[in-house]
Amino acid sequence: MKTSRTIAETRSAIGSADDIGLVPTMGALHAGHLALLEAARDECEFVVATIFVNPAQFGPGEDYERYPRDEEADAEAAAQAGVDLLFVPAVEEMYPEGFRTWVEVDDTGGHEAEARPGHFRGVATICLKLFNVIRPTRAYFGQKDARQIAVIRQLVRDLNLDLEIRVVPTVRDPDGLAVSSRNAYLSPSEREQALALPRALAAGAAAYRQGKSAVEAARASMNGLQVDYIAEEIDGEERMLEAAVRVGRTRLIDNVILEGDS
Fold first, then answer.
1. How far, in Å, CA of 167 to CA of 43, rounded?
2. Does the model's pTM come out above 0.85?
3. Where are the alpha helices (DSSP H) in 135-226?
4. Cα–Cα distance between 93 and 194 in angstroms, integer?
């Protein structure tokens, strides 16, 4: 596996490769990321993973400074997963002095966009930059980040990008909690409290199948968690129940598909 830190190095390392799979990450790789890398490795001839903690998608008071970072461990995991190229740029490489062009996002981000103003502006901008630098055939995202996927799909449609967005099912720990880099923030007692999130979503999905309100059932099952939002969202032919909660200082998101094939 090669590692590049500049756009020029990245383009040189990719060379004439085609059928490229891209897995964009912010590092702190976990089982969810490894599932994305495995899917890319299975489907593509050349796999690129990126590690970039994108300051533009963090709002004031969010966890940019303390976001988990372990490049050495991430590089080892990526190499073992069969990544061909690991792109690890500095902030100055992606947002050089004088950078002024941003991708504005309308209402695709749903309740998550309302909860985190400017977040998807940062997500869409960095993804478009990575797509332009790497020119992937396919880009891989996890179902847990459903609103991010909706935004990226809209970006691809609106800007006529020649790119397939591939969605990999959410990976969960044996206790049901969706794997996330932010799970590392949770104390043992907080992790136990956090289990109310997937359980509440499961209760909501069960209620929906019975013709009842998924939102009301999920809210009633949150077991005292601080809820940012619980909402039904539609992305194409999929209807999802999505939620964001806070456990101590940690914000977690999760979702279940109510209707659809993914």
1. 13
2. yes
3. 146-158, 188-194, 196-209, 214-220
4. 37
